[in-house]
Amino acid sequence: MFEAVFQSFEETADPGQGAPRLKRLRARLDALGLDGFLLPRADEHQNEYLPACAERVAWLTGFTGSYGFVVVLKQRAALFVDGRYTVQARTQVDAAAFETVNVGETTPGDWLKAHLSPGWTIGYDPALHTLEGLERLERAASAAGARLVALDANPVDAEWTDRPAPPSTPVQLHDIAFAGEDAASKLDRLREALTDARADALFTADAHALAWTFNIRGADVAHTPLPLGFAVIPANSRPTVYINGSKLSNAVRVVLETLADVAEPSALPASLDALGAAGATVRIDAGATAASFARRLEAAGAILQRGADPVAKLKAVKNEVEIAGARAAHLRDAAALCRFLAWLDTEAPKGGLTEISSAAALETFRRETGRLKDVSFPSISAAGPNAALPHYRVTRASDAPLTPGFYLIDSGAQYEDGTTDVTRTVVIGDAGDEMKDRFTRVLKGHIAISTAVFPKGVSGAQIDAFARRPLWEAGLDFDHGTGHGVGSYLSVHEGPQRISKLGTTPLEPGMILSNEPGYYREGHYGIRTETLVLVEPRAVPGAERPMLGFETLTLAPIDRRAILPALLSPHERAWLDAYHARVRAEVAPLVDPATARWLEAACAPL
């Protein structure tokens, strides 16, 4: 009945190959006269979702999470992961071959200082390391008396004999009806920003920036509609887009060439050399630009102006058309999600459902909208202990039945008018008092963010603790950020805006973020409640400065059966009842009668 088209549940990496592949890599490093090698999970665009040909960390170690960094030395090897993936790494990686290190406790730089010896030479692929990240590693190696050397070819690629070919999918135009601003206008604003920054040109390898600036989309990576390519955008002349010409139809090429020169990526090195020969001041984001590009510019004579890519800020603030599209996409998505939740409520108690069959059902309901382009990430469909892994990815090997307790479904959709991301934790059968207590504390934190009112200029770091306080009061916490930025038919994880301890960018009207506190008891259960919110001006009587708040975009019931009402304040109960009344009023007219009846009960006052 249900099927998944846009996501696979196959295991793509083999942990059992870790030791023999590591042995082969060490032999190659030895032949090159190297004492070690540094391997980040990255491509030359620093994408979160990588093309299959760039999944080198997964090929070598078996680890498939979205953040990983490997250090290979002659006698030991380490895989660095963040707090989201420490449990997952232990299940996917051969512990006899690779030591797993939580990067929150020990950084790769600190580890190198402790384990490198004087005189050692450690290789790296300069196309995979950002300039900023590489400089940190170079300082660490130097402190140990070792040195890092750039390699002309990645030694992993030489051993990966069945490595997939680079992607080459067609580029599509992103219609003005969805973009809300033509590319010529965006380029004018970008040139103005470069002039204000006294930069002669911007170099960007960020495919998101390329897609947004030129109003194009693609399918070179999974789940994010990106065309992989590069751009050089001068402050006072015509830009150049470097992209595989086979991806451009005649119609797309004609439109692009009204805006920019179009060249093959192979022409980029000579163009960077020309910028350097002219002594140009070139703006780069040192935290997102590969060292290979930055150092080529510098070696050729360019002056590197380090700073945020100005496209990121422009892209983060949605225009009125994008905001209207986000609202429409979320309402459409809400109808599909509520159909799924109603179906789940009927079928789960009968038994027979699994994590995969449930994820496939939700994707099917979304496809039936007729507007789904892709899922925005592989659904985190997690029952019981699997839900304690914040970024769990179900495979046919791990597929678990939905049994009494909590079931967590974190999923999203890509529509041309907007990108969605929503998590609901659902009770199957019953949940014990401890689980309800934790669920309610997560909900209290969620409501605290949803109702936050703050002055213009406040950053996500300043409100992140709002979501944590109810958990902190019980000696609990969670190891991920409270919220990330979201694009407009682009990445479901967009910067620079975020709600986290590291979120220093001021929040501005038009930014879209997630609100997703959680709690995870390893080996038992996990809880997360996530909606997307839009930053908007907020009128506050007597306010002495401009104030901001959030509009909630996501519309889906929060499971009332998991709540301990006594833990909620009158203000929190009022928010929940008002939210549910809005869900019922806006979604019920869009669904079938059975789902509408389910909504009536699911959205009843607490």
UniProtKB/TrEMBL annotation:
Residues 21-149 form the Creatinase N-terminal domain. GO terms for molecular function: aminopeptidase activity. Belongs to the peptidase M24B family. Residues 546-606 form the Peptidase M24 C-terminal domain. It holds the Pfam family Peptidase_M24. This is Aminopeptidase P family protein. Residues 326-536 form the Peptidase M24 domain. The keyword Protease applies. Keywords: Aminopeptidase, Hydrolase, Metal-binding, Protease. InterPro entries: Creatin/AminoP/Spt16_N, Creatinase/aminopeptidase-like, Creatinase_N, Pept_M24, Pept_M24B, Peptidase_M24_C, X-Pro_aminopeptidase_P. Its EC number is 3.4.11.-. The keyword Transmembrane helix does not apply. SUPFAM superfamilies: Creatinase/aminopeptidase (SSF55920), Creatinase/prolidase N-terminal domain (SSF53092). It is an enzyme of class 3 (hydrolase).
